[in-house]
Amino acid sequence: MKHSMGIGMVFAAALLAACGEGGDAGTGGGGAASSSATGGGGGGGSSSSSASGGSGGVPAPGWATELPADGGWTELAGSEPFEAWAAENLAPKTGYVGSGPIGAVRDAYCNPVFDHAGKAFYLFGGGHSDGSVNAVFKLDAATLKYSIVVPPTPPSAYPPAYTAPNSPIVYPSGATNGFFQTAATLTDAADLPYAAPFAAPQSSHTYSAMSFANGKVILHYGPVRDADVGSGTWSYLDKDTYGPQLVKFNPNYGEVVLQAGTRTANDPATGKAWTTLVPGDAGLNWRNCVLEMDPATHTVENVVSAKWEVLGDSSIVIGGPYVYVFTPTKSGGTATTTRGWRIDKATRAVEQLKLTGDLPSWPEFSPKQEGIPVFYDGSKLNFWNYGVDADRDAFFRVDLEPKSGAGTEEDPYVLSSTRETRPPSGMPSPALTYELTYIAEWGVVLFLPKASAKLWAIKL
After folding, report:
1. Of 119, 120, 137, 35, which is closest to residue 81 (Cα–Cα)?
2. Across-strand partners of 412?
3. Which helix (DSSP H) or strand (DSSP E) does residue 15 occupy?
4. Residue 250 phi/psi, 5° resolution?
5. Rounded to whole angstroms, how far apart are CA atoms 369 and 164?
6. Is it true that the peptide bond before 112 is cis, omega within 30 degrees of 0?
7. Distances (CA, A) of 392 to 111, 229, 362, 385, 387
8. pLDDT digits (tens, 9 = 90+) for 51-68
9. Which end of the chain is more exposed for a tag (fewer CB within 10 A), N or C?
């Protein structure tokens, strides 16, 4: 667990270079572009903080009230496949690069973030070799309509060296600062033909590392990036905001940025973003640490550590007064969720947990499922083992009242899990998914399985 600062920086730089998300630290700053809301869902999102926790004045829509109680997943006929909608409504429509230039926004290691007050999802993603579309999309959960709230960088502004989503953004003169630049910051005449209409980051994976606060989508993974969905502009581009803060808690963190597999549990009651500390895929394992952050100010307020060694992706969720984290154990090529811990949000006390009963298991190296999504329905936690066909129409429901134990590492609290089967749905196999969002005021989960699919929903 002890690593030097130099090693930390090497790993951080290596991962960012591999993903095309590195570059020298720049001043960032959004451009003057207006929002490009072309869909029926409207333009800017709610300007209220996600800390409101209320219904946001949005009554349950017809599609939610019509879902059968205790029924299965239902495809919502009134929705549209995201990829087809985006292909028709992007401006320009063509010129983007990657193996899935548009669909990668959802399918390439990305999870939307939910604005609890405004009842809307925001999508940003792609990156690596998957897709270069760096727009931010809004899905109005009430109307099921998409819109574009931050427009994409037009491919005409891609410098010649930018031939794939993971290419460094390097201009003909050699200028680079980690993001697409405007004429205001490009000073060499050779670069000006590729000046972008507004400053913007390239597309990237997001895992489940986004928050929504004060009308902004905040991406915690890699260099911090903010997208203002009201003005349609980017700010805080390419800044390693968390690394310098982390070394104040522990100098061994080495100012690393948050990396592959980072997950955030956004607390609608407080606005806090509880985020797993994932500083690298190898050698730097602090995955038993959770950051308590204020996403609006990019402040790491606390680092809360558990004692257990963690290998692989953890599931994290807010449940009442606690933040729950679960990590799988692995044997014979199979991962099984067997243990975890909970953090008291007020005192930050850590208590260890052991799961018994019906437990979700999946192939350890599954290309479609890295971990297990979990959501809190007001009384129980619900694991969704979507990568296993036999479990896609079931939830593993965890009773949060301990059956025994003291909450210590030696004697963890024992929680019971029961597999609850729902009627067969025929839902297509989802793309990589890191979480499900339970819309408490409506009593439903709304879910986009993959970019080529319509929306699906289920009532709890």
Report:
1. 137
2. none
3. helix 5-19
4. -160, 115
5. 25
6. no
7. 18, 33, 12, 6, 7
8. 333 445 789 999 999 999
9. N
